[in-house]
Amino acid sequence: MAWDRNQMAARAAQELEDGMYVNLGIGIPTLVANYVGDKDITLQSENGMLGMGPFPFEGEEDPDLINAGKQTITELPRTAYFDSAQSFAMIRGGKIAAAILGAMEVAENGDLANWMIPGKLVKGMGGAMDLVAGVRRVIVVMDHTNKAGESKVLKACTLPLTGKGVVDRIITNLGVLDVVPGGLRLVECADGVTEDELRAATEATIIS
């Protein structure tokens, strides 16, 4: 067994504390909005929204309310709207406590690759490079291996980097790892996953 996408998002939501301003990347991280619960968390979207609510129920979607991944979302009583310049001023100015991002590769030293695969069409790099440089904590949520079963948690990234040494914690379908000096530290295994299974699926150095 391993965590599914929703369980990974729920585990990522456990990282959030009252009063935090948090940016959610596209993909699995957007699901975190559904698991904030009663915590006083303000979710920021770089397309100009502060105070995102969870995904809408079917039939209640508002096409004018979307997140950075162009998915329909809901607003809250305290939601504020602004242009992208103001949005990135928040990010670059260090006002966002944490970013929860997806990734294609993460290295044991915290390097992150999540914006392009050479030779494939890229719509744009989005706000990832600003986020990893401007926020105080970067949490990556992704599958542990690719479709070919190859580790995405590597000794060194092979794809173009989004940022160097920027990742603090990695949450995958197999477990939770922290970036520490010398490699990665195993925090916990996913339900039904053994430490041996997680280690076997990881190219990166796990030091404890």
UniProtKB/TrEMBL annotation:
Keyword DNA repair: no
Superkingdom: Bacteria
Keywords: Transferase
GO molecular function: CoA-transferase activity
TM ranges: none
Pfam families from the UniProt entry: CoA_trans
Keyword Transferase assigned: yes
Family: Belongs to the 3-oxoacid CoA-transferase subunit B family.
PANTHER family: KETOACID-COENZYME A TRANSFERASE, SUCCINYL-COA:3-KETOACID COENZYME A TRANSFERASE SUBUNIT B-RELATED
Protein name: Succinyl-CoA:3-ketoacid-CoA transferase
